[in-house]
Amino acid sequence: MTGVAFTPFETRVDTIVRLAQRADALGLERVQVAESCTYDPLLVLADIASRTSRIGIGTLSAQPHMAGPAAALQRSSGGRLSLGVGPSIATLTTLRARLGHDVPLALDAHTPEAIRIAGGLADEWAPTLWSRSRLADGRDLLGRDTPRRVSTVLAGGRTRVAPVVPVALGPSLVVARRCAAWWLRTFAALEPRRLQAFMSPIAIESLRTAGRLRARDLPTIAEAAAHELTLFGTYDDAPALIAAWSAAGADRLQLMLAPEESEAQLTELVEVVAAARLASAS
């Protein structure tokens, strides 16, 4: 199962809605938006729900005060809503208490303790910036929380693995490297602690230096991380890359689109991802 997601830096609401419509028409399973200071994510999702027929809708970082509006949107959308709550265990606990199992919840957990809690309380473990080769480690931790709080919305009560993976695809490897470099530079500047689990201090510092120098290419020392943390390659590589994430343990793949791209470029990426999803399943 494959969907698309938008970062908090994507502020073009009309673009988000049109891309969601395109994703719906192409058969992608879900579109997620982050909480932003420029729009209400539930209002954007309600607009998407009214303009689409089947695609799932969701947040990346819901807050406790959204419980009431989320329950209403779940009813009006025909049960298509899910709520990512970011990394907050407190928010997960509060929303579970207020919503029961009427709305699926996902936790962006990175520590072993938080992953175990996701396995006991969340419907999905949805880490942003997690290494593909270590998905199995996280899956093992999901089953270690006892007593198990079984969700009625999942078959067998199993917490799904649904990583949120930055898209670094391009028509050529040069473009793909620039996309990967942008993602890794951004995370090195804003969330370096997340990178520390998967990259050496020297590699992280090389990304910071590249950011200060406004260098566009991917530092050689960061190439391995680009392959592990992003969907990195050419358009032709996309089916194999999606299949590799699935083989590594992803039940659902949420592909995060870069906010710096034009709407035409993002539409092209959505179409590439949709075609790659079908090709990877055949």
Structural class: alpha/beta
Number of strands: 10
CATH architectural category = Alpha-Beta Barrel
Radius of gyration, taken over Cα atoms and rounded to an integer in Å: 18 Å
- Unreliable stretches (pLDDT < 50, length at least 5) are 145-156
How far the N terminus sits from the C terminus, by CA atoms, comes to 13 Å
Average per-residue pLDDT, rounded, comes to 92
Overall CATH class: Alpha Beta
Helix/strand order: EHEHEHEHEHEHEEHHHHEHEH
Shape: globular
Name the helicity range.
40-55%
Q: How many H/I helices?
A: 12
- Number of domain units: 1
The CATH superfamily label reads: Luciferase-like domain
| Residue fraction in strands | 5-15%
The profile of the biggest β sheet is:
10 strands, parallel
- The strand order across the widest sheet is 7-6-5-4-3-2-1-10-8-9
